[in-house]
Amino acid sequence: MNVRLAETLMREFAHATGIVGSAPPRRYLWTDAYAVCNFLGFAKQTGNAEYLAFAKALVDQVHQMLGRHREDDARRGWISGLAEAEGERHPTRGGLRIGKPLPERRADEPLDPRLEWDRDGQYFHYLSKWMHALHRMHRETGERCYHDWAVDLALVAHRSFICEMRPGGAKRMVWKMSVDLSRPLVASMGQHDPLDGLVTCLELQSTIAGQDALRVPVKDYAQMCQSANWMTDDLLGVGGLLDAAARLAQLPVHIEPAYHEVLCAILQASEASLPAMERAFQIGLGQRSRLAFRELGLSIGLHAVRRVVASGALNGDVAVPFQRLLRFEPLATRIEDWWSEPSHRTTCAWTEHADINNVMLATSLAPDGYLAV
User: Fold this and answer.
1) Number of Cβ atoms within 10 Å of the Cβ of 100
2) Alpha carbons 175 and 182: distance in angstroms, whole number
3) How many Å from the N-terminal Cα to the C-terminal Cα in the chain?
4) What angle do CA 21, 31, 33 make, to 5 degrees?
5) Alpha-carbon distance 68 to 79, whole Å?
6) Fewer CB in 10 Å around end: N or C, the chain?
7) Within 13 Å of residue 234, how many CA atoms lie on the same side as its CB?
8) What's the rounded Cα separation, in Å, for the pair 270 and 268?
């Protein structure tokens, strides 16, 4: 039943957002990254080549739309500034737009924190999700171009989102950059952005033997992760920690001292944060203002924990904390059961974010495509 509902949701998403059919395409980077992985998972599970065609078409649409300037922008062409043919070969070298409804804030325009949520630009944590989607495309298709595009994106993201707090001093990251990556739009740092960067770059390094292009990014992210405080009271944030822990634990490098220390810190922060998630879910149960995609991010992370424990690959001092995290697994079932009920998907809180909610519910119900490393 779960997989059938997930497939239905993703087929509806494909038609509603113009991957197939006559609807005008609308692309949003975070949602589309999960969608690519979902289609890959269905292709592998069912043997239906149509799902692989959906994934490939979606990647092409994202690059053609979010790798270029908006239609309401005076600028034209690839946001990287590359000539047309070169941009086609390297569509991620300028990063990728978020896909927000409003254009980015002008350089002379004051920041309006509420309005900024609806303005375009580039988010690092969205770019890292797309790197993972491209990595999954490479793993499932064997086509080198997807890996190369992911590495291109990793390099430009590292170059653009990291800055020094003072010349020669410690490095930090910027939360949001302009479409052309020329200026920060929100200069504060996302709490988990260095962790996203580290795990994603290690994932990409594990694919191609001798891959050395990401050595400097990995070093910088690892340094920023040292002594970091990962604890969070955000449902989606805790889900992201669990996801990062599971992905890192499946990479051979996790046994190296520096990465092992990061993994242990993530597990500790996750275990400390999850009791508050249980309380928040109970308090919010039945509220019409709940943000489904944030809850579903947590359930996806809990599935990641189950997957890595079931693999039997854990050993040493990380096996026990992973096992302890399994006690929170019933929360994933409660979240999925709630949002799988059709009547709960008719509120404004759901319909206003229908694309991201539908795709992340599908991911939670059928997580293999996204969670594979």
Assistant:
1) 17
2) 14
3) 25
4) 95
5) 5
6) N
7) 13
8) 5
Domain parsing of the chain, residue ranges: 67-228
- CA atoms of 368 and 37, how far apart (whole Å): 8
The shares of helix, strand and coil residues in the chain, as percent rounded to the nearest 5, are 65, 5, 30
How many angstroms separate the CA atoms of 223 and 14, rounded? 40
Query: How far lies 326's CA from each of 242, 319, 365, in Å?
Result: 11, 11, 17
Please count the other Cβ atoms lying within 10 Å of the Cβ belonging to residue 16. Answer: 14
Q: What are the residues whose beta carbons fall under 8 Å from the beta carbon of 16, sequence distance 6 or more?
A: 23, 354, 355
Q: Which two tokens stand for residue 359?
A: 């795709």
Q: Which residue has the tokens 């999954």?
A: 136
Token digits for 59?
């990647």
DSSP state letters, 38-88: HHHHHHHHH--HHHHHHHHHHHHHHHHHHTB--TTSS--SBTT---HHHHH
**Residue 288 C-alpha from the chain's centroid:** 26
Q: Cα(55)–Cα(248) distance, rounded to whole angstroms? A: 25
| Residue 83 to residue 306: CA distance in whole angstroms | 46
Q: Are the C-beta atoms of residues 339 and 295 closer than 8 Å to each other?
A: yes
Place of tokens 């890959």: 40
Chain segment 294-340, per-residue pLDDT in tens: 999 999 999 999 999 999 888 778 999 999 999 999 999 999 999 99
pLDDT digits (tens, 9 = 90+) for 190-205: 999 999 999 999 999 9
Tokens 């709630």, located at residue: 338
- What is the chain's length? 373
Spatial distance between the Cα atoms of 94 and 55, rounded to a whole number of angstroms: 22
Contact 186, 169 (CB under 8 A): no
